[in-house]
Amino acid sequence: MGYGLSGAIGAAFANPGRRTILIEGDGGFAQNLQELGTVAANNLPIKIFIWANNGYASIRMTQRNYFDGAWVGCDSETGLGLPDLELLAKTYGISYVQMTENLFNEPKIANILAAPGPAIIEVPIDPEQTFYPKIASSVQPDGSMKSNPLHLMNPELPELIAKQVFKYL
Question: How many CB atoms are closer than 10 A to CB 119?
Fold first, then answer.
């Protein structure tokens, strides 16, 4: 979490002149947003799609699923501060557009993707959106958390597919 922008910068430097696409949540993006200075100073052709769900979706889901919704530090209502992405883009002189339901029918998205240099495309999504697949965990009697191994994600694979795949473990 938070590695996306730095990784996109590395990819852009490794492939000069080629457009780089980054898709990252607003919480993860905020962890290294200072790197927009590098993006702007080098006019890197990185198109940054930010899923704006008002915070840390994975932490929000964990707090809902395992701690009865004892919300702490996962969104603006519980103490997490996130920037206004349009103002942030403007601060660095980076193009910005917020996606709407009709944006794919408008020339804005095509123009911002085709334009040279960086851009931030804010994609509002429902804060209650669940992400799959994910690693399932359980609260232990002592209050600690135990997570499944990486190959046992949720939702579980259908039995026939699991037999075919897990025979290689």
Answer: 22
